């Protein structure tokens, strides 16, 4: 496993049979403003020229980067193979990326809907795209007995307008005005858009929800587990979502997810009113209320959410998909 590090010198360590290697990076401050696209590591390229693995999985966003392209050229020059793993649902279409994707043995994405969408694009026409589900440790993310007397909603992610957090706040108001006066909503995550955060604060005041909604700021990943376990419903009100690991983590904790239909990744995971809720921005509040007024749903959806993760998104499922991906390359080479 190889990563970039901000340290001035590279380093490595071994856990069981896995070596974790970290390469120092430099930044080119010209060109695109996004920092990750300026990351490059000459020491990594030197290492690959000397000791190129038989198979390399390059994990990069759909925009790719000059470094990932340079690394792919080194790998190809050594007559080795690379697999392109993509996150996100936005792609840069230019000559460099077309060559990068074309020369990959295959491409890994995290959802079936992303694969379908990519196959409709000229950039990925006739390329081998496979689904690689990201799994969670079901021994860590696991259900706990919920002791909530009133609805407890949760959001985890960046506080920015495209995430649609205001829809979840409106849902809390819907609950309060329909008898659930102590409904509660925790919002966890960094403030990425200060004007939108100010708008949410004002909305809470206008709806008189000061005692129902609280911002808890950014947390370490391990700190999220108790919140995921205690929540009754995890809200994902964005109309544009990728795979969303926190969605899987919530479901593993027996907390069903309410998400926007046709938003991307959630559609691959959530079965409407079976292990979660798929709704629209217009019906978001009403469907949240409907869930908390239906005792049968509050029993069945948490149970089936956990079952879905165990069956399709456990670490075992992820490992099997990874093993199949690498084996297909090795079999191809022989």
- Tell me, rounded to a whole number, the average pLDDT: 90
Shape: elongated
Mind telling me which CATH architecture of the largest domain this is? 3-Layer(aba) Sandwich
What is the fold named in CATH at topology level of the largest domain? Rossmann fold
Strand content: 15-25%
The tally of beta strands, per DSSP, is 15
Order of strands across the main sheet: 12-11-10-13-14-15
Order of helices and strands: EEEEEHEHEHEHEEHEHEHEHEHEHHH
Low-confidence stretches: 28-34
Could you name the CATH homologous superfamily of the largest domain? Glycogen Phosphorylase B
Write a structural description.
The protein contains twelve helices and 15 strands. α8 crosses α11 (295-312). The strands form four sheets. It has a six-stranded parallel β-sheet, sandwiched between helices. It has a four-stranded parallel β-sheet with strand order 6-7-8-9, with helices on both faces. A three-stranded mixed β-sheet has the order 1-3-2, covered by helices on one side. It has helices spanning 42-50, 66-77, 95-103, 112-119, 165-177, 194-206, 224-230, 245-252, 266-269, 284-292, 295-312, 315-333; strands spanning 2-5, 11-15, 18-24, 26-27, 39-40, 55-61, 81-87, 107-109, 129-131, 152-156, 184-188, 213-217, 233-236, 257-260, 277-279. Residues 28-34 have low confidence and may be disordered. With 334 residues, the chain is of the alpha/beta class. The protein folds into two domains: 2-134 and 316-333, Glycogen Phosphorylase B (Rossmann fold), CATH 3.40.50.2000; 152-313, Rossmann fold. The chain starts with a strand and ends with a helix. Helix content is 39%, strand content 20%.
